[in-house]
Amino acid sequence: MVYTIFPDEMKALESEYMSRHQIPSLLLMELAAQGIVRAMLRHAAQDAGCIFLCGPGNNGGDGYAAARIWHDQGGRALLVELTDAPSTPDARINRNLCMERGIPAIAADAFPDSLPWLPALAVDAVYGTGFHGCLNEQAARLFDWIHSSGIPAIAVDIPSGLNGMDGSASAHTLRAVETVTFHRPKTGLYLAQGPAYTGNVTVHPILIPKETGCSGLACMEPADLSVVLSRRSPLSHKGSFGRIVLYCGHPGMAGAAAMAARACVKSGAGLVTLVCSEILLPVLQTLVPAAMCIPLRSSGSAWETESLQVAETAFHSADVIITGCGLGQDPIHLPVMEKLRHVSCPVIWDADALNLMARHPEWLPLKTEDFITPHPGEAARLLGTDTGWITGNSLQALERLQAVTGCSVLLKGARSLMQSGASAAVNVYTSPALARGGSGDMLCGILAACLARRLPALQAMQTACLIHGLAAVRAAAQYGEDCATPEDILSCIRLDATGLPSGI
Length: 504
Fold this sequence. Notes:
The relative contact order is 0.09. Helix content is 39%, strand content 16%. The protein is α/β, with parallel strands linked by helices.
């Protein structure tokens, strides 16, 4: 498990740790530079010509130190300076060491006209985690040239132009193929626009023990799956892995119910039951043969009492209930929603169940054992705001959603966020292959299977998001991000870290 850290917490942590152990800051800069060079070798040959974009502060100092190491190991280095002189002692020392070695430097104002050769790689050491606001014209012009030239870039700690607190990005923010961050990933790398600029995020140690400091967002790693999910006992049976009931599906949207139910089965649930309109019975039993079905017959605008009683019995015997996937917003569902509010087991409220909830705030709060799984649009409707505010203020949105609903929250996105009680997490293993209909339904099914294993709330959400994301990574590696269908992703679900492409 890895935890994120906010930039101001990281700054305070470094100062306190260096003071307590009498460690010179120059040593931490040297360790950071070694991590940068290690990352460079993943993208360029050891003797390649690379440019180092150096700003005025210690982020620039990391760049100067990396340029020196690159030069000493046989590479060609060129400094591109955005300042006449570094503003910190450590950065000045490393610049002087570069000058001693005859490493050439050019001013950013003269770039790219005075560039002696086309670089194989750029290292962005301009602003780092302290950046707020907008990039100046000089940096914007420099980054635009990097982008237009197609030269890959490595970001030092955080891409310049990205806010390490909230993930907001200035216009012209540098897009990196890899971001080398130190000690812990900075929270803004995973929020808002962060994932669009970071590339692969690599955490490089700088002497400070990993567990030191304030706990931020928890990031579960693939290796954690074997710890969280114990192996099946030889004496286990279908009742050992939980009873999941789904109140989902509507004519024209049966696929959503099927996808959620199939994900339950694929993720190890013991017994899966679909409660649905009798019209859907043939298609759902065909799509999900391992699931049982309870057909609901309607009389006018309401479900018939007899079939509803059978469904209610199933609800009260369930270990987990899913509602909302492809449900529609017909008033016929309202009496069932009332019943689901009062069952004893956890209920996962998704999709149209959330849209109905937004129109019926009297249902809130839910019980603490429940879960909501909104995407930003559904979250905006629940909070009476717009999608832009949700995506731009995702941590605040997470807290507000929990306060309003009274239950655990899984806010879906490029990097899904989770909160249960006072603890929060982010899923960082995912793929754009999930950007298609059916992905959220699949996630609900995986989450239900994790809850059926009696995992604690936050751990269940983390585990479900990780399983979901890794399945998408596997499918994308096999079929491509554009061509991996939900069925392909479903087939790639595993409850371990096997079968992943290298580098994950």
